[in-house]
Amino acid sequence: SNEPGVTQVNIEILSPALSGLDGQPVVIGQGSTSVTWSAAGLAVRIVGPPLGTVGATLDYQIEVTNPGDLPTENVVVTVEVPPLLRVLGSQEGVVGANVEWRVDKLPPRGSQQFNLQCRAMSAGNVWLFARAAAAGVTAEGVKLNTEIMESALRLTMELAGAENTAGIKVGDQVSFNIQVTNTSNVPLANVQLRDT
User: Fold this and answer.
1) If we measure between CA atoms, which residue out of 80, 85, 89 comes closest to residue 52?
2) Cβ-based neighbour number of residue 161 at 10 Å
3) What's the pLDDT tens digit per position in 150-191?
4) Which residues on neighbouring strands pair with residue 99, listed in sequence order?
5) Considering just the CA atoms, what is the radius of gyration of the chain in Å?
6) Distance (Å, rounded) from C-alpha 53 to C-alpha 150?
7) Residue 109, by phi and psi: left (phi above 0), alpha (psi -120 to 50) or beta?
8) Cys staple from 68: which of 41, 75, 111, 184, with CB 3.0 to 4.6 Å?
9) Does the predicted model carry a pTM greater than 0.90?
């Protein structure tokens, strides 16, 4: 096992010259000790939204942890980003369809978190896969599912009654025509439109 731990070792000293009533060798001494070994460890997890809508920004957090009692060195954390998502930002570099982060040294029982921001490009069921590897240690890969749905509302906004928008100055009062359309096949209740 590559995990730190402790095991108990029991020792018996037998005399081949002496035998007990049952004919077995006699124990002439015994003792016990424990053996402790150290190891680095690696675990990874993803936290993110279970649902999203097309065009929305989705924020994911990826955390890598060293559950061991020795430092883990040269850690590489990789997230496979599915085609329905477009990477908007991360703390490191995009490598093809993947995003990678590097950690020189992760202390014992330490962790580091990375943020990944994506835009949902179309509807569907997406899975993000994350894995971590280091010198002599590999974490079990993990996955997270996000269901991307079409937005049930479509909003359009036009400037009302203005033929020449170039003539509008800062501070002028203007009016807008706003149209809200329910694009789903079920009625929506309590829809509110707010100017923020």
Assistant:
1) 85
2) 9
3) 877 778 888 887 677 777 888 888 888 888 888 776 677 788
4) 79, 94
5) 31
6) 5
7) left
8) 41
9) no
